[in-house]
């Protein structure tokens, strides 16, 4: 699961520094270039002559040493100034600050203020989503409306209207990604913090547009959080039930994890084929709407037949039906709701496009501003993995272990993981006994962290900052944005306790939370809190998650397990790389077809999924035209998040290779996580000595083979 960004940071006010940053006085930017970096939103159209006169006046007042800063700052303000903002010249005369104590004091004041503003807005947003995020019983009708409300949507607009946003633009410069990558290695920490400060105001998006984006994403999150399949009610052609009573799995996370667990089950192959059929029907929207989160009907996913479930098969903990509703064996498909949610997010995002000409699409903002890596570079890394000649060699090894030709479900083959042969029922019994509640997991965090290599003192300190909640969905980590608040770990805890799926997710989310504590509480500038992008927090969480079985006392690393770890990382990276390509291609298709209907989008996603499958996966997994790559729920509820997963695997592998030579994990994790949100390559050079690359994983895989 992802580390859920706060809505506050996910929208406009807190883009990661890997997007638009700023230079400092030691790295001046030409005024013309600077003007091109900010939005072409409606402006006051101040004449060139007036701006030139203003610059000359300010240089005469403050000296030639300030000329570059003055010219750049005036141009940055002018690009976003509107008629209702008043007299630009008067504002600039009053608010331009030459270098020195007053500029330093202003920087410090703004850093402190924005930590508090960000943090409290984040907490308000968390409260509004409290009941939709957590498993606290049936939702009230008002909850979806509260979750969709974003209290931060007016903040940036208000800060421009009240002028602090213009103070920042007048005194701290913006840069391009290319400039930052080139000059960043020579910057001081103060310069990086200034970059983060300036990037907050690179656009001036109207508050109503921000609110629409927030509402669309909140609606999509709630839709996914309640998308469960009751597995006992899947039947085959003979009416047989392959799954135990009470097993409720969320799409896609739990369906995928159940599929992985079935490799150790005597009926595993039949179960896996059934899950694949369910997944494909979700992607193609051919599953009956009546079977979604409904344990009162039985469903054969192969024939799509639906029947009323016998009363004795209905789970005791089944959710209550709405008053007056009846159970119907309705085969009508879900009416493309999945794609209507995605389209709503796309259409809301498009409204922000005119206010960001430097990154005029959600795609460009995702890569250039949020991720800090050009889309072309990410695509090249993905295709390098997908087209690697190592893939058929690893596939042949898997085939020899399974004793059969590979099938689509083997996309998620887990057999390289230590303890993969342990039956999931045994793991479930272990985790349910140890963690009957979310509080039980919280109490065990200090022991877990010590098992990961943190000192007892550090483990106790970290645990004191982390709060654990039972999630309505599959789980996520929610960061804190001010010192004094606490990150939240959310994972699903069923009635009988936390099963292994929930535990595995909880260990992953714990990795996010530990990073979040370090990168907020121990970073030198709170403006730099966090990591370069979501791929990095995923990578650090993968480092924790890879050790979940060790933390249960099931196996210790040795030479053989090290080889298996490498092969597992390669196969997982190969799997998710294609999923990321589908996510990227889907957004390109929507921009090329902005008036598409949900039905047309469904067809497009199916075709994109089949095309990527046929190119990279069918030759290995043995069946053409599967839409399976479109199953990931992130594509609906976390726009363009999926590329962060393969990147996260690559980064995690580089970190693991570094840890083999420079342990212990605890101290190195802390050193890495406190470096802050600089550019991806700069962070990686600090962490491991090399930029982001697939080379380390590919070399190690070749050696392992």
TrEMBL record:
Key word Nucleus present: no
Taxonomic superkingdom: Bacteria
Ranges where the record places region Disordered: 310-331
Residue ranges crossing the lipid bilayer per the database entry: none
N-terminal signal peptide: 1-25
InterPro entries the record matches: TAT_signal
Record's keyword terms, sorted: Signal
Gene3D superfamilies on file: 1.10.1370.30
Keyword Acyltransferase: no
Protein name, entry field: M3 family oligoendopeptidase
């Amino acid at each position: 699961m992802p580390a859920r960004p706060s809505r506050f940071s996910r929208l406009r006010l807190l883009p990661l520094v890997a997007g638009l940053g700023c230079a400092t006085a030691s790295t001046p930017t030409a005024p013309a270039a600077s003007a091109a970096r900010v939005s072409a939103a409606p402006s006051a159209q101040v004449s060139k002559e007036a701006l030139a006169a203003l610059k000359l006046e300010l240089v005469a007042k403050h000296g030639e040493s300030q000329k570059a800063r003055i010219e750049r700052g005036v141009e940055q303000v002018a690009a976003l100034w509107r008629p209702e903002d008043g007299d630009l010249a008067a504002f600039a005369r009053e608010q331009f600050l030459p270098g020195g104590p007053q500029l330093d004091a202003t920087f410090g004041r703004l850093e402190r203020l924005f930590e508090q503003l960000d943090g409290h807005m984040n907490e308000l947003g968390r409260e509004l989503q409290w009941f939709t995020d957590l498993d606290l019983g049936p939702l009230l009708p008002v909850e979806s409306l509260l979750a969709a409300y974003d209290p931060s949507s007016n903040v940036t607009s208000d800060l421009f209207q009240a002028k602090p946003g213009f103070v920042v633009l007048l005194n701290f410069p913006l840069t391009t990604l290319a400039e930052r990558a080139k000059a960043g290695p020579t910057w001081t920490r103060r310069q990086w913090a200034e970059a983060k400060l300036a990037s907050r105001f690179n656009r001036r998006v109207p508050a109503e547009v921000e609110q629409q984006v927030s509402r669309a994403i909140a609606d999509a999150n709630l839709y996914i959080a309640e998308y469960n399949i009751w597995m006992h009610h899947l039947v085959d052609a003979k009416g047989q039930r392959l799954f135990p009573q009470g097993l409720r799995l969320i799409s896609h996370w739990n369906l995928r994890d159940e599929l992985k667990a079935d490799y150790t089950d005597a009926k595993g192959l039949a179960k896996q084929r059934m899950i694949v059929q369910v997944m494909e029907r979700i992607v193609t929207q051919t599953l009956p709407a009546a079977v979604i989160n409904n344990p009162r009907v039985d469903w054969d996913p192969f024939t799509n037949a639906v029947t009323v479930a016998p009363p004795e098969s209905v789970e005791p903990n089944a959710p209550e039906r709405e008053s007056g509703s009846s159970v119907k064996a309705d085969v009508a498909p879900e009416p493309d709701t999945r794609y209507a949610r995605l389209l709503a997010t796309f259409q809301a995002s498009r409204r922000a496009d005119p206010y960001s000409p430097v990154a005029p699409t959600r795609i460009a903002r995702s890569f250039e501003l949020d991720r800090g890596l050009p889309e072309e570079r990410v695509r090249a890394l993905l295709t390098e993995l997908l087209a690697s000649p190592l893939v058929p060699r690893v596939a042949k090894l898997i085939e020899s272990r399974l004793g059969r030709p590979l099938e689509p479900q083997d996309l998620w083959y887990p057999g390289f993981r230590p303890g993969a042969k342990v039956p999931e029922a045994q793991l479930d019994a272990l985790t349910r006994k140890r963690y009957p509640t979310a509080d039980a997991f919280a109490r065990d965090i200090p022991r877990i962290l010590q098992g990961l290599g943190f000192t007892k003192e550090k483990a106790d300190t970290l645990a004191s900052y982390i709060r654990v909640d039972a999630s309505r969905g599959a789980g996520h980590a929610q960061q804190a944005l001010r010192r004094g608040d606490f990150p939240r770990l959310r994972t699903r805890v069923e009635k009988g306790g936390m099963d292994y799926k929930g535990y595995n997710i909880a260990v992953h989310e714990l990795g996010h939370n530990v990073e979040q504590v370090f990168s907020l509480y121990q970073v030198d500038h709170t403006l730099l809190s966090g990591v370069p992008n979501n791929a990095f927090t995923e990578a650090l969480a993968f480092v924790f998650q890879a050790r979940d079985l060790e933390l249960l006392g099931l196996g210790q690393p040795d030479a053989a397990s090290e080889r298996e770890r490498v092969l597992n990382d390669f196969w997982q990276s190969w799997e998710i790389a294609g999923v990321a390509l589908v996510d990227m291609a889907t957004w390109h298709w929507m921009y090329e077809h902005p008036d598409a209907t949900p039905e047309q989008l469904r067809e497009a996603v199916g075709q994109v999924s089949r095309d990527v499958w046929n190119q990279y996966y069918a030759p290995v997994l043995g069946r053409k035209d599967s839409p399976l790559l479109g199953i990931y729920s992130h594509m609906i509820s976390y726009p363009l998040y999926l590329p962060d997963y393969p990147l996260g695997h690559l980064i995690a592998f580089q970190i693991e290779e570094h840890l083999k030579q420079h342990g212990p994990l605890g101290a190195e994790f802390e050193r890495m996580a406190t470096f802050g949100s600089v550019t991806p390559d700069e962070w990686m050079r600090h962490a491991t000595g090399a930029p982001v690359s697939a080379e380390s994983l590919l070399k190690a895989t070749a050696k392992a083979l």
